């Protein structure tokens, strides 16, 4: 199976529901890019040059949560430079509760951060 059944079912239900309600256009994915910074300096990457003036900028958590609250997309993609170095990544992951989450890390911090996110998630769980 190319896509998990639950993912396919959730997206299909959302799209069919929107079409039946007469919605012409509707969001499928909320793409959050909370920061441009990355922990790597790859030679071929244009991000360092392209975002040289905003590499240190970060979108405040409150703004990310506000945008997520406004958007009803069934999928959340957390991308940017290296999302795992965003200080509030745990809360961003938790905001995807009930949505399909896609994060786009570089992979170098994955192991340690997964344990940190799991700890945050279990602390905030009811």
Q: What's the layout of helices and strands?
A:
Elements: H1 5-20, E1 29-32, H2 47-50, H3 61-70, E2 75-78, H4 89-95, E3 100-103, H5 110-124
Parallel strand pairs: 1-2, 2-3
Helix pairs in contact: 4-5
Report low-confidence residues grouped into runs of 5 or more: none
Helix content: 40-55%
Shape: globular
Mean pLDDT: 79
User: How would a textbook summarize the main sheet?
Assistant: 3 strands, parallel
Distance between the termini: 33 Å
What does this structure look like?
With 126 residues, the chain is mainly alpha-helical. It has a domain at 27-33 and 58-126. The chain is built from five helices and three strands; from the N terminus they run αβααβαβα. It has helices spanning 5-20, 47-50, 61-70, 89-95, 110-124, and strands at 29-32, 75-78, 100-103. The chain has a three-stranded parallel β-sheet, with no helix packed on it. The model has no long low-confidence stretch (mean pLDDT 79).
Key descriptive features of the protein:
three-stranded parallel β-sheet; 10% strand; 126 residues; mainly alpha
Summarize this, please?
This protein is mainly α and 126 residues long.
């Amino acid at each position: 199976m190319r896509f998990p059944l639950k993912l396919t079912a959730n997206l299909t239900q959302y799209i069919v529901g929107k079409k039946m309600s007469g919605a012409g256009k509707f969001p499928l994915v909320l793409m959050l890019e909370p920061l441009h910074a990355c922990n790597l300096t790859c030679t071929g990457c244009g991000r360092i040059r392209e975002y040289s003036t905003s590499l240190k900028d970060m979108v405040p958590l409150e703004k990310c949560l506000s945008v997520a609250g406004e958007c009803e997309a069934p999928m959340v993609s957390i991308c940017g430079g290296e999302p795992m170095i965003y200080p509030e990544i745990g809360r961003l992951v938790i905001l995807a509760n009930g949505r399909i989450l896609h994060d786009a890390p570089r992979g170098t911090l994955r192991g340690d951060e997964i344990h940190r996110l799991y700890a945050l998630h279990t602390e905030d769980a009811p």
